Amino acid sequence: MKALSIKQPWASLITLGIKPIENRTWRTNFRGRIYVHSSMNLPKDHWGLLSPEQYKQAMDSLIDGKLREELHLGAIIGEVDIVDCVINHPSIWAEKSEGTFIGKTFYHKEGTKPIWNWVLANPVMYDEPILNVKGKLSLWDFNK
After folding, report:
1. Which helix H or strand E contains 33, and what residues bound it?
2. Residue 5 forms beta bridges with which residues?
3. Strands, E, within 62-137: which ranges?
4. Which value, to the nearest 10 degrees, does the dihedral of the CA atoms of residues 131, 134, 137, 143 take?
């Protein structure tokens, strides 16, 4: 099965069903189930990187402290389906691209790259993550 490396806390927010969008500078045509791999890097002040609206939604959605104190790094922590890949999704988790749609074609503002919003569904966070897994760039194959 394919896997995607994502920094924490976003990887956990995805597998808990709080963050239904993953933002990338490249488009994917892949649709289907993937493993969510939490990368080894934890950004400094990671909660501070969320907008106030995102932070509120994340904290309001957490039930019984379901987001563990320890954010697992370098581990397969769950699974999710990629169901679409669009530009300027209305979700608060979607980064927006500057540009214009003409018909179904998006023309991004000169000097910028479009941000693709990968639409995710059916998330599962593992009770026991698969630890000590080295990630890779792009979508990559992981065999248990």
Report:
1. strand 32-38
2. 37
3. 75-87, 99-102, 105-108, 116-130
4. -70
Specify burial of residue 64 (Cβ count, 10 A radius: 0-12, 13-18, 19+).
exposed
Query: What global pTM score does this model have?
Result: 0.83
Per-residue pLDDT reduced to its tens digit, 85-129:
999 999 999 999 887 767 766 767 776 788 999 999 999 999 999
Which of 15, 5, 132 has its CA nearest to residue 66? 15
How far apart CA 23 and CA 115 sit, in angstroms, is: 6
Contact 53, 89 (CB under 8 A): no
The C-alpha atoms of residue 56 and residue 89 are separated, in whole angstroms, by 19
Token duo for residue 63: 């039930």
User: With b meaning 16 or more CB within 10 Å and e meaning fewer, what string describes 115-138?
Assistant: bbbbbbeebebeeebbeebebeee
